[in-house]
Structures are given as C-alpha cells and as structure tokens.
Amino acid sequence: MEIRVLKYFLMVAREGSITGAANSLHLTQPTLSRQLMDLEKELGHKLLIRGKHNISLTPEGMMLRKRAEEIIDMVEKTEADFNAINKIIGGDIYIGGGETDSMKYIAGVMKDIQNEYPEIKFHIYSGNAEDVTEKLEKGLLDFGLLIQPINLSKYDYISMPEKDVWGVVMPQNSPLAAKKEITLEDLKYVPIIASRQMSKKYSAESGFLDWFGEEFENLNIIATYNLVYNAAKMVEAGLGYAITLDKLINTESINGLTFRPLSPKLESGLDVVWKKYQVFSPAAELFLKKLKDKFIQP
Questions:
Q1: CB-based contacts of 211: which residues, under 8 Å, 6+ apart?
Q2: Tell me, what's the pLDDT at 100?
Q3: Same domain assignment for residues 237 and 217
Q4: Which pLDDT value is given to residue 203?
Q5: Backbone region of residue 91 per phi and psi (left: phi > 0; alpha: psi in -120 to 50; beta: other values)
Q6: Longest dimension (CA), the chain
Q7: CATH of the domain at 199
Q8: Are residues 289 and 151 in the same domain?
Q9: Residue 207 belongs to a domain
Q10: What CA–CA distances, in Å, run from 77 to 16, 81, 206, 216?
Q11: I want to staple 96 with a disulfide (CB 3.0 to 4.6 A). Which of 101, 125, 206, 240 is the partner?
C-alpha cells in the first residue's frame, strides 16, 4: 500500500463520491477509480459500495478508513519529528487526556515553552483512558494525562499536585440541591448520567466500585458520556443527574445548574504518562524536562 493511495481512499470516504474526491485531488475520475480498484485487488477485499449517486464503505472499507487515518497521522507525526531535528527547537507535541481541572498545570508548562520557543506547537486529543493509552501504544501521542487510579506498569509518569473531587451536577431546583453533599443513598433513587469511566466496563479499575460497593449494579444509569459539555446539556434538558469531576462544568455560566460533592469524598489525581524507553523528538524532550523541573522535587 502506498501512502498516496491511502490518502485517495480517505478523500473518497470523506466526499462520498468518486467525482467529488477526484475534483478535490485534481485527478481525473478514471485515474482515481483505477487506483481504488488496484487497492481493493491488493487487499483482496471490496472496500467501496458504488451507488448511482454516492459511494459508501463496506465493513472492510470502514476498518481500512480507521487504520488509514492512524497510518497517515503516524506518517505526518514522523515527518514533523524529523523536520524538527533541523530546527533550533521546534516541532509538534501530541498530548491526549481526559477532562480535568489539573489541565491548568499542563497548560502553564505549555505557555512557558511557547513563550520561549514559538516554533513548538501543541496538539491536544481529548478522550478517556482507553482511548489515550491506545494512541500512546501506537505512537500517535507523546504524552497522556490519565485520571487515577490507572495501571501505570507500562509507563513512566509524573503526578500532578492536586486531586479532583467527584460530585453531582443537578438542576438548582432539585430537592438534592438543598444538601451540601450527596450520599450513595441519595443516588439510588434518581436517574444518573455517568462518566464513561464509571461504567461497568471500567469501574473496577477507576475506583468507583470501591465507593458504590454492591449498590453499583442497582444504579439507574440512563446515559453515559465522555465529554462533560454534553453531560451538562443532558442535565439542562432534565434527563438526569451527572456524576462528574468538580470545576469542569461552569455552573455559574450555565443557567439553573449546581454542583454538590459526593460523601464520603471521592477524589482522583492526575498523572502525566509516557511509554517507557520512549524516544522523543527534541520538542517533546524539552516538554518532559520542563514538567520534571516544575513537578518533581530535587
């Protein structure tokens, strides 16, 4: 497979038509069609369903689209890393992580570096621990910001100085809003919008099972989320009560919502992680040095 042909395939998948993709790529339609048929022949699978007016992907085509996007990302990252070697200090740093107030510490380091080295650019990918670690393993990210607890056996890491507090975002007119803290007993009788980190698949490693105990299976979890903005919108619509970290939803700017912490207190720290024995670009190496200087005591 050639990178060029994978880019052609992704353009067709994006445009939904051979004609539109050919125009965007400045190719003739027969040339593009021939390249795609050669790709299907090389892989031994039909990738495209060719309709009268549009193109759709077969299951094999959808799998290739995901892999092709990862391959192109890796190629572009590798090219950027090697291009950065020839610069004084520049290049791209790729960071993935969940939503957390502790991002302010990372943002502070990013600002310090950018002031001193304006040629360095940062690329942030938002996702849960599963998404981030998958991209770390594939080399698509330099660093991950993982909310504790998490299995760190594969990684070197630096812990951030503060912990985030879990609680419940709810309408201000909810009966529970009259309480200063929310207990497990309170949650047993309301519809819950849960962080994906809370879901059954991840709850054992995230620490939620320790807090909820045997009642976890009895919770009325009606929706899950991995972006807290969407959770806030669901609470606004009256769908349920969102369990989330403090300070992620600005309840002062979103009309009619409020936050109450869980009791007993449930906290999560944050670790900046990277693969053991990772070979960094000069820009990523500088970022790591700045992190260590700021957050590791001599």
A1: 184, 262, 264, 266
A2: 85
A3: yes
A4: 47
A5: left
A6: 68
A7: 3.40.190.10
A8: yes
A9: yes
A10: 27, 6, 31, 42
A11: 125
